Amino acid sequence: MVLVTNARLTFNSIPDGHLKPGDLVHDTSNKIDPDTVPLNGGILLKLIVLSPDPFMRTLMNSDGEPPYDLGEPINGFAVAFVVRSEVSTIKPGTHIHTFLPYQNYVVFPNADLLASLPNEAGIPWTAYVGAAGMPGQTAYMGWKEYAKAKKGDVAFMSGAAGPVGSFVVQLAKRDGVKVIASAGSDSKLKFLKELGADVVFNYKTTSLSEVLKKEGPIDIFWDNVGGETLDAALYAANLGARFIECGMIGGYNTGNVGVKNLYHLVTKSISMHGFIVTTLWPKYLEDFYKEVPKLIADGEIKHSEVVYKGFQGVEKALEDMFNGVNAGKLVAVLGDD
Ligand SMILES: NC(=O)c1ccc[n+]([C@@H]2O[C@H](COP(=O)([O-])OP(=O)(O)OC[C@H]3O[C@@H](n4cnc5c(N)ncnc54)[C@H](OP(=O)(O)O)[C@@H]3O)[C@@H](O)[C@H]2O)c1
C-alpha cells in the first residue's frame, strides 16, 4: 500500500470582481492509494492537462449554474490518463477528455458513457482541451448549427483571438465569408491576420461602430463578449442576420451584460441563438472527433496555446485570461504535484 498526495484546487471564497490570490487554494492535505482505492465499477483517472476556461469564473458567483461549492475542488474540462478500469470499453493506459474535479486522481463512478480518445492523428494531449477539445467543439458545432453561412456573407467575431474565436474565424474563411475580427492587442491582431481574417481591429483603441459602419452591414455575428459589443453589432446588422451568442466575457467579473439595442431584432428580422456546447454534442461529437484532430495535424486548422504549470498555473491562467494577456488557449499541465 503506497499513499500518494492527491492535491486539489479548491474554491475558497467568492471573488469580488477579478479573481484574487486566496480565492482558490492549492490543497495538498489529501492522500490516495492509486493501487487499491475502490472503483465500484468505475475508472481511476490521473489528470494531466487542465483547461482554464472563461465559464469557470461564472461558476464562482453565487448565482452560477451550478455554482462551485466552497471548500470543494473546482470542476473544469481536463484530459486524464486511465490508471485502472472496471469498465470493459475503457482500457488502462488510454486518455479521456471530460469535465472533472481538479485534483490529481479522480475515481469516476459512471464511466460507461465515456470513450477513450483514439488520437489517431497523434496531436499533443494539450490540444484536446483547446482546438480539439471543448473550445474547438464550441466553434465547430455552433458555427455548423447556427451560422447558415453563404459565400460573400459578412461576419463579425468579437473576442476573436481566443481558442473559440480563432477557430470560428477559420471556419468562416473556409465558407467564403468576409471576416471582421476584434481583439485587444496588436499581437492578437497579427495572429488573426495569419488565420485569414479580412479586417482586424483593436476594440480598445478603435471605434467598433465606425469599423462596422465602414465594413458592414453584418450577416453573421459570433459574440464572445456581449454588452456594448453586442449593442454595436445589433445596430450594424443586415436584414435577416444570424447572431450566435456564444459568451459574454465582458460581464463575467461584474455580472453586467446589459444591452439597449434589442429592438433591432425586430426591425431587421435577426435570429439570435444562445447555446451551450454540450447540448450540441449528441448531433456533432462523432463528426468532430473524426474530422478536427486530423485537420489540426495537417495544419488546416491552426491553433495556438500557452502552457502553464500545475494547479497554480490554473489560477494564473484564469487571472491572465481576464486581463487579455495571451492569445490562443491557456492550458495547465500537471506534473506529480
Ligand atoms: N457557449 C458555450 O458552450 C461556450 C463554450 C466555450 C466558451 N464559450 C465562451 O466563448 C467565449 C470565448 O471563449 P474562449 O475560451 O475562446 O476564451 P478567450 O477568448 O481565451 O477569453 C479570454 C479573452 O477574452 C477577452 N476578454 C477578457 N475580459 C474581457 C472583457 N472584460 N471585455 C472584453 N474582452 C475580454 C480577452 O481578449 P482581448 O485581449 O481580445 O480582450 C481575453 O484574452 C467566452 O465568452 C466563453 O465564455 C462559450
Automatic annotation (TrEMBL):
It holds the Pfam family ADH_zinc_N. Keywords: Oxidoreductase. This is NAD(P)-binding protein. GO terms for molecular function: oxidoreductase activity, acting on the CH-CH group of donors, NAD or NADP as acceptor. It comes from the Eukaryota. PANTHER family: PROSTAGLANDIN REDUCTASE (PTHR43205), PROSTAGLANDIN REDUCTASE 1 (PTHR43205:SF7). Coiled coil: none annotated. It comes from Coprinellus micaceus (Glistening ink-cap mushroom).
